[in-house]
Amino acid sequence: MLRDFTFNEVYFLLLATRWTILLAVIAFVGGGLLGLVIAGMRVSPYAVLRRAAMAYIQFFQGTPLLIQLFMVFYGTAFIGLSPDPWTAAAITFIVNSAAFFGEIFYGSIESIPRGQWEISRALGFRFVPTLRLIILPQAFRLMLPPTVGFTVQIVKGTSVASLIGLTELARTATVINTVTFEPALVFGTVALIYFALCWPLSLLGASLERRLLVQKVRGGPLGKGAAASPAAAVAGPD
Amino acid sequence: MDYVFHFGPILDRWPLLLWGLSRTLELSLVSMVFGLAIGILGAVAKSFGPRPVAALASAYVELIRNTPLLIQLYFIFFTLPFIGLRLSSDTAAIVALSIHLGAYATEIVRAGIESIPAGQIEAGKALGLSGRQIIRHIVIVPAIRAVYPALGGQFILQLLGSSIVSAIAAEELTAIANNLVMQTFRNFEIYIVVAVMYFVVVQAFIMLFRLGGRLLFRWKV
Amino acid sequence: MNRLSPGRLLAGLLAGLFVMVSLGLAPAQAVTTDEIISRGKVIIAIDTTTAPYGMVDTSMEPSGFDIDVAKLVGEALGVPVEFVTVTSPGRIPSLLTNRVDMVISIFSITPERALQVAFSIPYAGQSSVVLAPKSLDIAGPEDLVGLKVGVTRGTGEDGLLTKQAEKFPGIEILRFDDYASISQAMLSGQIDAMGGGDYGDMYLQKSVDGEDFELKYILKSFFFGIGVRKDSPELLQWLNTLVYSLKNDGTLNELSIEHRGAPLPELPVF
């Protein structure tokens, strides 16, 4: 032991939390946008795009996040790139969460009755305008609860970036543990910080989900496909 | 400086990687069984238990779902010995993974229970079934059937998530990969091979899980 | 109507990714001291989880033996040091992919590693030892049979103890990812003995069972060199000259006493 675990160390853990938050925001925004593209491809009229989107989702949901991160960080060398840990982590978290967002968005889009597509085609709308102006606004409320739920997974998943040396919350915990040797205190504090970040999001997700269920019971404008529990999609990389 | 690929050193060590894969499967499958059991108990407690029991189940679910698995592993392995509970690496990994999955499974199974119409339970009562029989035949089995795909998704995340138990010296595929990296310095080649192995196993698991669902639920209910 | 076509969105995203990747590209290959000086900074890989060589001080700035050596390198070149933190398995890739100019992070000189990177003459050294509670009677590997021994994955101790475990079946090796984890496993009583550095007992307090720890036996002596890319002979020669001079004027010995509580061991050269 080189020094005690004091409020000074707690302060640095709190400072490191901003990098965890920043990484989660990057993953949420970038992954959300890319996920929208993936979901759009998944319901597009072109079989090639649909298949590409399915393969994309299958790959990123079928291999560990840690291995994906190692491949981006160490593996891009063979095309002459050497991203720093931040760039590697940002890219990995964006492409990984895009797969999960893509699946969530796709599920919500699918639960909008098929008739809506047919009506807008009859009205002369093409694919993208139909998706953007008619389907997505309706699907939005459906996708909201699982999206918030998955955001919790993103926040927790950022801890994996510590394993390529990115100094976010989990890595700072290891660094402080190295000099204080107080794992119960260090990891207890860190668990509390993660909990403080994630729990409000979880509560928000749950309350959104309840509101949705109430609407459905009252006979809201949702099709029968919406009966699939949004809770089912609340799962992600860890 | 160009990076030159060498797969030779990895292919020489196939048996080690396969052994790591079998450990990954063992850890995942055992914790799936325990996790599902915890999930069913938790869901029944949350849906039918008396208030304090339901509150306890909720607290467990919230605590586990809102903290990273890595931190839970550290806690079980490094901190529990200070209150006299010493678990080996493998046991600690299985306990952590089971508790982790149990929290998610609780919520999934609970969603299934909620999807069962109240009338169905009334019908069970009218037929003279006992409370235990009703919970088992009218609630749990149909509930699991309703959320079977969601459970499958969670099991896959469990399989992939087991990759971080090397942090407490449990040996599995990613730990073996890291050992090989240190021996051969062939980071990228090894991670490609390991990614392919995980991918193949996950796809096989998806197929088996679907097949299992067909076999299980054709004659039940 | 077509402002948000998927094609454009995808193209925009790809462009964004490309910019991010380009920003993340390592600077031009610095292979000579002249290039480092004209660039105005030297980029050095360190690890802040390897106390007492690499750690952080109370204001979370890097500190330790390795960090002080890195600062001396910067001073001698007359340029500021940019630290890049790497993990132990990330040291060789960080050099091979041009992320850093050199690695100063308890980088033991071994012929296997020297196939990938080049080492300077050693600037520090220590022995890998087996540490265990005083109450255990351990004089050699035969006494470890039936015990759990913790090591850091891929370190010298890992290799040596793994070989001893092959010779004496019954030694159970547990591999952890960093030194803090094995020290912690030791304090929690999760392992009976550990492989570590000869400074290791100064970090171990009483365990959960109230035990004190001591050095049991020495496995092997290791020497740390500064790692550079193999295509930088001029930089390597300059580093050798610097280490030679820091050793002769007593600077390295002072650092060793400050950080390890022991004088610098006899350092061989090659």
From TrEMBL, chain A:
<feature type="transmembrane region" description="Helical">
    <location>
        <begin position="184"/>
        <end position="208"/>
    </location>
</feature>
<keyword id="KW-0472">Membrane</keyword>
<dbReference type="GO" id="GO:0022857">
    <property type="term" value="F:transmembrane transporter activity"/>
</dbReference>
<dbReference type="InterPro" id="IPR035906">
    <property type="entry name" value="MetI-like_sf"/>
</dbReference>
<dbReference type="GO" id="GO:0006865">
    <property type="term" value="P:amino acid transport"/>
</dbReference>
<feature type="transmembrane region" description="Helical">
    <location>
        <begin position="53"/>
        <end position="74"/>
    </location>
</feature>
<keyword id="KW-1133">Transmembrane helix</keyword>
<keyword id="KW-0812">Transmembrane</keyword>
<dbReference type="InterPro" id="IPR000515">
    <property type="entry name" value="MetI-like"/>
</dbReference>
<comment type="similarity">
    <text>Belongs to the binding-protein-dependent transport system permease family. HisMQ subfamily.</text>
</comment>
<protein>
    <submittedName>
        <fullName>Polar amino acid transport system permease protein</fullName>
    </submittedName>
</protein>
<feature type="transmembrane region" description="Helical">
    <location>
        <begin position="119"/>
        <end position="140"/>
    </location>
</feature>
<feature type="transmembrane region" description="Helical">
    <location>
        <begin position="20"/>
        <end position="41"/>
    </location>
</feature>
<dbReference type="Pfam" id="PF00528">
    <property type="entry name" value="BPD_transp_1"/>
</dbReference>
<keyword id="KW-1003">Cell membrane</keyword>
Automatic annotation (TrEMBL), chain B:
<feature type="domain" description="ABC transmembrane type-1">
    <location>
        <begin position="21"/>
        <end position="209"/>
    </location>
</feature>
<feature type="transmembrane region" description="Helical">
    <location>
        <begin position="190"/>
        <end position="211"/>
    </location>
</feature>
<keyword id="KW-0472">Membrane</keyword>
<keyword id="KW-0813">Transport</keyword>
<dbReference type="GO" id="GO:0022857">
    <property type="term" value="F:transmembrane transporter activity"/>
</dbReference>
<feature type="transmembrane region" description="Helical">
    <location>
        <begin position="27"/>
        <end position="48"/>
    </location>
</feature>
<protein>
    <submittedName>
        <fullName>Polar amino acid transport system permease protein</fullName>
    </submittedName>
</protein>
<dbReference type="Pfam" id="PF00528">
    <property type="entry name" value="BPD_transp_1"/>
</dbReference>
<dbReference type="InterPro" id="IPR000515">
    <property type="entry name" value="MetI-like"/>
</dbReference>
<dbReference type="GO" id="GO:0043190">
    <property type="term" value="C:ATP-binding cassette (ABC) transporter complex"/>
</dbReference>
<comment type="similarity">
    <text>Belongs to the binding-protein-dependent transport system permease family. HisMQ subfamily.</text>
</comment>
<keyword id="KW-0812">Transmembrane</keyword>
<dbReference type="GO" id="GO:0006865">
    <property type="term" value="P:amino acid transport"/>
</dbReference>
<feature type="transmembrane region" description="Helical">
    <location>
        <begin position="69"/>
        <end position="87"/>
    </location>
</feature>
<dbReference type="InterPro" id="IPR035906">
    <property type="entry name" value="MetI-like_sf"/>
</dbReference>
UniProtKB/TrEMBL annotation, chain C:
<protein>
    <submittedName>
        <fullName>Polar amino acid transport system substrate-binding protein</fullName>
    </submittedName>
</protein>
<comment type="similarity">
    <text>Belongs to the bacterial solute-binding protein 3 family.</text>
</comment>
<dbReference type="InterPro" id="IPR001638">
    <property type="entry name" value="Solute-binding_3/MltF_N"/>
</dbReference>
<dbReference type="InterPro" id="IPR018313">
    <property type="entry name" value="SBP_3_CS"/>
</dbReference>
<feature type="domain" description="Solute-binding protein family 3/N-terminal">
    <location>
        <begin position="41"/>
        <end position="263"/>
    </location>
</feature>
<dbReference type="Pfam" id="PF00497">
    <property type="entry name" value="SBP_bac_3"/>
</dbReference>
<keyword id="KW-0732">Signal</keyword>
<dbReference type="GO" id="GO:0030313">
    <property type="term" value="C:cell envelope"/>
</dbReference>
